[in-house]
Amino acid sequence: MPGAPGGMPVIAPMPAARPARVPSQRDTDEAAAAGTTVDHLTETYRAHYRSLLGLAALLLDDTASCEDVVQEAFIRVHSARKRVRDPEKTLAYLRQTVVNLSRSALRRRILGLKLLSKPMPDMASAEEGAYDLLERDSLIQAMKGLQRRQREVLVLRYFADMTEAQVAETLGVSIGSVKAYGSRGIAALRVAMGAAA
Q1: Last residue of a domain, one of 117, 149, 176
Q2: I need a labelling partner for 154 at 20 to 30 A (CA). Which of 24, 95, 114, 130 fits?
Q3: Does pLDDT of 15 surpass 60?
């Protein structure tokens, strides 16, 4: 190292630093358009995966659903990362997406439970429905042609599912009368329905 007069070592001066460049509006717009980077999003996701899973677990009840929600949140934020203008808000976006997806999952479950709690009707074909309608209309017409007591006994016995004793008590007649009115009524219905066919 060459020395200066007087035996002191010479220290080369530091090169002059470039003047700091003031970011232009264009730079700010480009950064905003770029949004958060994939690397930053991935790092944030990895670092906070357990806390995001815990958040989903508070809202949902099974681990598989929680994992699905957290992974779906990452995919959604990844797709919309250009909207995350401030990289510091990446975690907030992930958390909000986890909450929204958990709500949606709960809504779907509640709707599914409501639908499952109602028995599904046995759907007949159009032809069967039309045939049933015609048969019911024929039966109603045939019932109108019966004597009043016969009609009352048959309606109470077969449509109201009453026993013969209950029908007798309701109409104020004997059980023998209920049997007689019932058998005559059925015989008259067979004739009427056979004639209608």
Answers
A1: 117
A2: 130
A3: no
